[in-house]
Amino acid sequence: MRFAIDKLILSPDDIDLSLSPLAGQLGADTFILGAFNPGLTRLPNGNLLLMVRVAEALCDPIRDKHVHAIRWDDDSGRFLLDAWPLELVDTADPRKFLIHGGGWRIMALTSLSWLLPVELSPDGLDRIAIHYDRAIAPSASFQCYGVEDARISKVDDLYMMTTCSVSPERHSTTLYCSGDGLNWGFDDIVLDHQNKDMLIFEGRIDGRYWAQTRPLGDLYFAYPPGSPWRAGPSINLATSPDGRHWKPCRRPGLRPRSGTVATARMGGGAPPILTDHGWLSLWHGVEPKEIVGIYRTYWSLLDRDDPACVLHSPAEPVLEPSAELTKPIEHQLYVRDVVFTTGIVDAGDHYIVASGEADLACRITHVPKHVFIP
Q: Which is one GO molecular function term here (predicted)?
């Protein structure tokens, strides 16, 4: 679909590296690989807040026959560089490198991600302020390779932000909380290894918190022949009495369909919000292509009292990657065909949807509400 208001609101050139949490610590030049996948919420003053993932990378990661990774070091309280011999790694994907050997995949990143609050006008179309003083960077060993992909939900009077914390210890979901949507405090690890894209519903059901989760793994059991479902990553559900301790639901959530490869891989997008027709869930489907694949945004409506019951889930995407939007920053592209929706807010007769575009920039789209009426 095409929408009248659809633009990039932030790109790498808008980030001031001198104000980065990494500034002056590495003894090497860095650049912004991407400013993307922003969490989205509305602040008490009516403005919008993007919590932008800033991926900061080395300008020359490969030198002296080694590839280098940035890491937060708990002992020194600083960011350091690790060097890996080139003969031990695979650098085909510009976002990471795989380390040879062992009975399972081991990787490290060519950049380190931190989170930057960016305040927008109420319609999301103008930048008001970039709050470098409130940036969130790694501060513990379990997030030594970065803090990624914020998703923000407001439940009652509390802003709750889930993030992905990356380290050799675990690939965990971490929770930050705020009373005003701008000043965040670390709460705790809430989901353990490789459970990504955790989205807390914006509201409770019968007093309980609900969330979408996406456990990952290298092995999935097959559905029987003729099943409408395809084996692979799916969007599961969990409930909690307090937003910290989560129990998986017995019933499945959203699953990839067997009749199409467009959603062969899927994961959560924006935190579900309640509409007159049920919980609106925006999620991403990935069609296999080359290394990264084609990411598109799809939508589903879930029953307001039982989110395991899917009421409506069209096969057509609502958002697709836009080469037209990225044309002005074509020289900075390192992946293509990716739109990764990460936030939604109500704006009257339409929704404001925030996405990452091409793992590079932040995209704002105004989607009329009638689009989501079954």
A: hydrolase activity, acting on glycosyl bonds
